[in-house]
Amino acid sequence: MRVDWAFSELFDSTLPAETLFTCAKRPQHSTKEKLKLLKKCAELKFVKAMMALGNHYLKEEKTFEAIDWYNKVIDNDPHHAKACYKLGTIYWSQNNEVDKNYSKEWFTKALEYGCPQITLEGIGTFTTVEEIAALAESEAPPPSFNEIFNSSLPVLFKWVENFKFMRTLDKTEYFKLILKAAEANHPYSIKRLGYMYSVGYGTDKDPVQALHWSLLAANAGETTDSVLCERIGNIYWIGQGIPQDKNSAKEWFLKVLQAGKKVSVKDENEKVQTVLITIKDLENLI
Fold first, then answer.
1. Which of 183, 176, 175 has the alpha carbon at shortest distance from 200?
2. 109 in a domain, yes or no?
3. Is residue 67 part of a domain?
4. Are residues 130 and 89 located together in one domain of the fold?
5. Is the same domain home to 208 and 274?
6. pLDDT tens across 172-199, in order?
7. Residue 170 — pLDDT band, cuts 50, 70, 90?
8. Of the residues 34, 95, 195, 210, which has the fewest C-beta atoms closer than 10 A?
9. How far apart are CA 145 and CA 177, in angstroms?
10. How many domains does the chain have?
């Protein structure tokens, strides 16, 4: 193999990812050039390059970039023990119980996928899943709103799905966590946010936003959810904040009926105007 490749030759070449990866480590390339070559390898789905990028950013203390690359490793190789170990180490180092508990999930995966041991500085070395599970849970009070809001996205996603925890928050805090998670494309939160805007939970009622987020949820595969479909249908039927569109409303009501559910059609005051039980009822709706 040639060892005197110039950066431009390599970057513009069609060499296999493994060859590019080997060349990227040559001493004649600057750090910036090495990163560009590694990223090109990563675009070719070369997992070793993704792992190298994660290691680089972790060394540079760029935690979010490191997490992103380690997650890409997992996306391409779900049983990658070293990437799981690295993610666990990062979350453990955040010094808050929310991330520490999340890190245990990654440590467990690392051991299950072949990592021989987990070493935690100042605590010890663990070689079994049972030892990781036995790590003392925090006796501190439940995490605060600020702790969850400022945590990493995977941790935020985990907690917004914890209904028992979310009920301990006031409505405004509840809304803010759901909004942040929804804006990061968390499916559960997208669906939940549509409901919150529709009823004004933790925020002002906003039929435009309610329709926006509810449609996102429906288009993501929630069209079998009769409550969601009925909500979208009623927003179109009432036309509050948006142009009234009875044809679109009937399309969404039909989905509910096809699922074997009844439809409560509402008026502009959001009172039940009529109840649809059969498709014939829908055809007669005016």
1. 175
2. yes
3. no
4. yes
5. no
6. 999 999 999 999 999 989 999 999 999 8
7. very high
8. 95
9. 8
10. 4
Q: How confident is the model at residue 214 (pLDDT cuts 50, 70, 90)?
A: very high
Residue 72 lies in a domain: no
Nearest to 183 by CA among 173, 174, 170, 193: 193
- CA atoms of 193 and 209, how far apart (whole Å): 9
* 165 in the same domain as 128: no
* Entry pTM: 0.55
| Structural Rg of the chain based on CA atoms | 25
Q: Are residues 216 and 156 in the same domain?
A: yes
Q: Tokens representing 253?
A: 């009501």
- Residue 95's region, left for phi above 0, alpha for psi from -120 to 50, else beta, is left
Check whether residue 149 and residue 215 sit in a common domain.
Answer: yes
Return the CATH number at 194.
Answer: 1.25.40.10
pLDDT tens track for 256-278: 999 888 999 998 888 889 999 99
Instruction: Note down the domain range covering 240.
Output: 223-286
Of the candidates 93, 111, 113, the residue with the CA atom closest to the CA atom of residue 103: 93
Count of CB atoms within 10 A of residue 283's CB? 11
pLDDT category at 63 given cuts 50, 70, 90 is confident
Please tell me the distance from the alpha carbon of residue 18 to that of residue 189, in angstroms, as a whole number: 40
- Single out the residue of 210, 209, 215, 286 nearest to residue 255, CA to CA: 215
Residue 275's φ and ψ, nearest 5 degrees, are -120, 125
- Side-chain-side CA neighbours of 75 within 13 Å: the count stands at 11
| Helices assigned H by DSSP within 137-220 | 145-149, 153-160, 163-166, 171-183, 187-199, 207-217
Residue 82 maps to a domain: yes
* Domain stops at, among 222, 243, 272: 222
Token pair of 272, please? Answer: 């039940």
Number of neighbours of residue 58 by Cβ within 10 angstroms: 18
CA angle centred on 92, ends 75 and 109, rounded to 5°: 40
Contacts of 148 (CB under 8 A, 6+ apart): 98, 155, 156, 159, 177
